[in-house]
Amino acid sequence: AHVLQSGRTHFAERWSVVAADHAAAVARLRAGPPATAGARTPARRSTPSVVFAIPGGGAQYPGMGRELHAREPVYREAFDACLATLPPELGTRVRALVVGAEADRPGAAAALEAPSLALPALFATAYAAARLLMASGLQPAALVGHSMGEYVAACLGGVFSLADAMSLVVTRARLFETLPVGGMLSVALAEEALRPLLGAELSLAAVNAPGLCVASGPVAALERLQATLAERGVDARRVPIAVAAHSAMLDPILPEFRAACRAACGRLGGAAPT
């Protein structure tokens, strides 16, 4: 009742039907709103816009693109175009985990925690989903992404070609795997409450909401933090990717990755990143 009174958005188009069964509901919905419904439809103030928000590492899971790949030609074409830019062995493995039989095998989720598989799999899935939405008539007014999702947004926005974007994702994943094993922990605390608990080893990787942050760093330090949080009754969950992304642990790989970004920007004649 509170949401209905104070938080419910009144959309420009709204009507309802009453039906005794599924067939009657379908018939009445297909018939459209009655003439009297028009008087209760508020005038639209402006043309609505759409923003695509694209997730990063940790959102992946086995078989995440199987149904769309099987049923939607636009999705399948875009997904396959992404995999065509990968080394054959890597492309075959990603395909098997995302749309193929390997997704159903024990250990598939653990395999997708490896950055070398997780990041290209996520990129191809998100890119193909975006292309399918765009082909269906949803043209985004803006594109935003978190971490790996930023590369998808940049590619869709014309900053990088598909080949260059996939190359950067693969390079990033390869460099991740040259580092000591790390991890990330999603914590139901505000930034100011989490920072004092991080110590010298952990970094604040992201502030996803006023009461939801991500800590990143060595696995042992994350486990100590998680134990401390459990004692205090604070919900904390490991992000399913085996890298301490957005932490100080990544500093050693930055020069090589910066050079890869400069090369990609140079091929498009864009400004090189600093």
Verbal overview:
- It is a single chain.
- This protein is α+β, with helices and mostly antiparallel strands and 274 residues long.
- 47% of the residues lie in helices and 11% in strands.
- A hairpin with a 2-residue loop joins strand 4 and strand 5.
- The protein is globular.
- It starts with a helix and ends in a 6-residue tail after the last helix.
- 31% of the residues are buried.
Main sheet characteristics: 4 strands, antiparallel
Structural class: alpha+beta
Strand line-up across the major sheet: 4-5-3-6
Helix content: 40-55%
Task: Report strand %.
Answer: 5-15%
Number of strands: 6
Averaged pLDDT? 90
In short:
The chain is 47% helix and 11% strand. It has 274 residues and is of the alpha+beta class.
Give the SSE layout.
Elements: H1 2-6, H2 22-31, E1 51-54, H3 66-71, H4 73-84, H5 88-98, H6 108-111, H7 115-135, E2 142-145, H8 148-156, H9 162-176, E3 182-187, H10 191-198, E4 203-209, E5 212-218, H11 219-231, E6 236-238, H12 254-268
Parallel strand pairs: 1-2
Antiparallel strand pairs: 3-5, 3-6, 4-5
Helix pairs in contact: 4-7, 5-7, 7-8, 7-9, 8-9, 9-12
